[in-house]
Amino acid sequence: MASISARRLSKELTEIKNEGCPVGINLVKADDFSTWLFTIEVMGESLYQGEKYTLQFRFDSSYPISSPAVQFVVGDGHTSPVHPHVYSNGHICASILGNEWSPVLSVVAVCVTLQSMLASCKKKERPPDNDRYVRNAPDNPKKTRFHYDDDTV
Amino acid sequence: MSRRTQTPPRVPTVNDLRVKLCYICREEENYDAPPEDPPRAWTHPCTCTLVAHESCLLRWIQTSQGDPARAPNALKCPQCGTKYELVSYRPRILRLLGLGNAVLQRIGRLLTLCGAAGVVAVFASGIYIVLTAYGAWAVRQFLGEEMFNLLLTDNPSNWPWTTFINLPSIPLSLIAGRFQTAALIPTLVPILLVWPPAPPIRYRLTRSTSADTDLRFPPAPARDALWTWPPTPAVFGFVIVPLVRVVYRRVRAKVQTWVLGAQPPSARLGRPAGAGAGAGGAAGGAGANDGWDGWPIVIRIRAHVVGEEGGQPPPPPPPQPQQQVVQVQQGVQAPGLVHVHNGEGEGEGEQPQEGPQPPAAVQGDEQLPDQDQALAAAEQQISISASSLGRRVGGALLIPWISNRMGALLLSLSKHSDTLRRFLAVRPAGTGAGAGSGTVGWPYGVAPGEWEGLGPVRQVRKALGMVWAASWRGTRTWAEADPVWWRNAIGLGLFVVAKDCVELLHLYLALRELESRHVRSRDFAGVDIRELDLVPGFPGPRKPSTTSVGVGAAQVENHTHNTHGGQGQGRARSLPRGM
């Protein structure tokens, strides 16, 4: 019996393949149940018009009880969007990826949330502590204990 | 849940759903499909449409509760926010154990704090013990073995509680004194003032009745003399020491000025090397600064300022004009601050100085600034002002030992001089209060029992009288013991004088060395004589005549240089500084 995480991810994958992703979100790679890649772009009027970013999901075996590790891919021609909650190394400070994660969310739901986070941005800027954080950031953003101070995310 | 199913219009439950989709694992179960093997229970824990396997949900709750950041959301539906209700077997004992655990947790945290505080306390008490031990040693050194055994004894458990404040404060005050002023003696005042009023421990040890623990102020000694010799510690600390200090500083400043031509810059604390603009600084460092400094150059500029004369003019030795200069100088330096500037609080006479200075002042003007500069250089050379921290602290902490050694020296000298012995009030061996016999007299002015017989008014009068007597005439204990402290204090004073003399000598010699400096001039041996522009009369080969004009010019220049070399110092001196 495959693990719960593999079973659930295969169901999510089937769903994506059957129903397609929401507008602006595309599945790039989902060869296994540990790392998935999506492209994400903001539709309509926004500061990020015409820009396309790559999102990386990493799952551990206790998904969906534990949240996926989600970040923007940086390097190899990819950059992270300039946003008050996105660090230049691609890490995202969003409560749904941390203490407000719930199994009711899914990979697609996370994509949509992040898409709307970008869409609602009013000023392109890095988080105030970007440099300090990036210097010491762990590889896995889940190991960071973010302080969520903005409810608009 | 079961209650609802029983209400008449039947409300559907999770078991009535056609397709159940676990919101956690996304597994589905059709109502008509055969149940899993083994069957898994379903639950609908909230008020929205989400359903889940009970096992999945319990696992989620359990995981979330383990994470402090997520625990607040663990028992809430992520969609409708309804609180999940857990039904479980929680006997009272479990709750009690949980409570006990929480209490232990809190105690543990408290212990952690206490531990940290304990480490700090151990560290601090270590320092405290060292300070106290030093203080005891200092007292023993300064007051002598006999007084130490009378007042404190070797056993700290006999010490009164005040000792544990007084002793550690001794090294601290010694060090602090070193950083405030150059004076050493005042730092010993704490030693002298603390113990005289305290009843000697030795006395209390020899008796053990409860009346002895009654702390009353000490009394007059048997004698009724108005003046005792040696002076009592209180008189010495409050009157003699400050007086001697003032006088000594003045004398020292005068001697320095006489020997060196000016006071060394380090004696004028805070005075910048520039013109007399350092008035504020000088006033700030008033403790050690008596304001006698030769900076007449400032006067010439600011002579019209009305000086508020503070200190007494330096007595006879300096010539009259110089005196005036100094007076104005003081006034100009710190108008309004003069009383601070003069530190010791002598009378302030108004002595306005106006108009042009007598020519003599201008004359002095031509030497002093340069002298001053040289002095500063000399001082720097022997680095009096820049002594290291260790040297200062170490020097301060050695004071008790030094005074002890000096006292011993005086004692051995007194064997040859009757006058000295009388001055030091050395007791013949064996007659001291505590000398061997171990009998210590009742140290109070009233006999035991007499006090209770007095009325309140008379008690107060008696007490005041005892305080007065104690401070003026000292207690019997102090009066009868060999006054080691007295010769030690005198010895320390002599040491300070000697040390200052050595410093002054050093400074004087360094200054002389600087002033006597010359650069030795060599002849032109080894230089090709044709490359030199020489005077026409010089025998030997000379340069081609084409350059003769240039030669002449160079000669003139050269000549000026030579003469200038001789007068150089005079010229430089005559340049007024600060203008």
Question: Could you explain the architecture of this structure?
Answer:
The complex is a heterodimer of chains A (153) and B (579). With 153 residues, chain A is α+β, with helices and mostly antiparallel strands. Chain A has a single domain (2-141), classed as Roll (Ubiquitin Conjugating Enzyme). Chain A is 24% helix and 15% strand. Chain A has 3 helices and 4 strands. Chain A has a 4-stranded antiparallel beta sheet, with helices on one face. The N and C termini of chain A lie far apart (37 Å). Chain B is mainly α and 579 residues long. Chain B contains 21 helices and 4 strands. Chain B has helices at 2-6, 54-66, 71-74, 92-151, 163-180, 189-194, 201-206, 233-260, 279-284, 296-302, 320-333, 338-341, 359-365, 368-382, 389-397, 399-414, 418-424, 456-472, 476-480, 484-515, 548-574, and strands at 19-21, 28-30, 42-43, 52-53. Chain B has a two-stranded antiparallel sheet. In chain B, strand 1 (19-21) and strand 2 form a beta hairpin. In chain B, helix 4 packs across helix 20 (484-515) and helix 11 (320-333) crosses helix 13. At the A-B interface, helix 1 of A face helix 2 of B.
